[in-house]
């Protein structure tokens, strides 16, 4: 009798143990994934955006803007922050950037990366840059789901933009500085129109950055900017293994004449009275997804993002 009871107890214990083992085996541990987001800069159907040809001569692009002008690239860099991945389980995962020469990540301060497509050759010489190029963003996520989309902001987060971070290589770019209050240039897209077509002799710029910034108590710290000018972008159907984020510089020049200056600095330097930035003349704000009519340098409705043509996915 005692033996039968003991066997019965052991059988029950065995069933309980088997049950626990079965339950735990179905719980999948969350794995860490390394992710690389690749970016590609082009000039319409003329191919990759380059400073120079293989023979060392500056690369000339043709049929640009309203006057179908020719020009050579002087600089092409921009900051990206707040990178997140859309997942197949309907979650959104923050990409924890790897800290290196072009990236910075902190759970407290936020994250930022600089994408750099100029290599210091051709007409990109002596533009405050060097030969290093950065065309990818790398980091990690903790998820077992599949990446289905990507979202990011073109610009530097407020907490990182308005202070000096000499120990952060990604932000320690003197030529990307805007001013002591406004922080950094979020984009530094520059083209030099060919001499025969250039009525001003100046480089045509697209420098996007925060404007209307103020220091309320004169303590040297920026408190706010009335035109933050950060571009929030979101793309579905994106697979990091097969897709790239494409920046088509020719799209940005669609409604401007790079050989002339309609007022203010040549090109668009983010001022709300700069004709090349505005929808009625140059459209450059709208083509990157900013609503110039709001006078706040940000998108207030879906139409702004729909107008955005500079960035796409392939």
TrEMBL record:
Ranges where the Copper-binding protein MbnP-like domain occurs: 33-270
Coiled-coil ranges from the UniProt annotation: none
Classification via InterPro entries: MbnP-like, MbnP-like_dom
Keywords from the named record: Signal
Signal peptide coordinates: 1-25
UniProt name for this protein: Copper-binding protein MbnP-like domain-containing protein
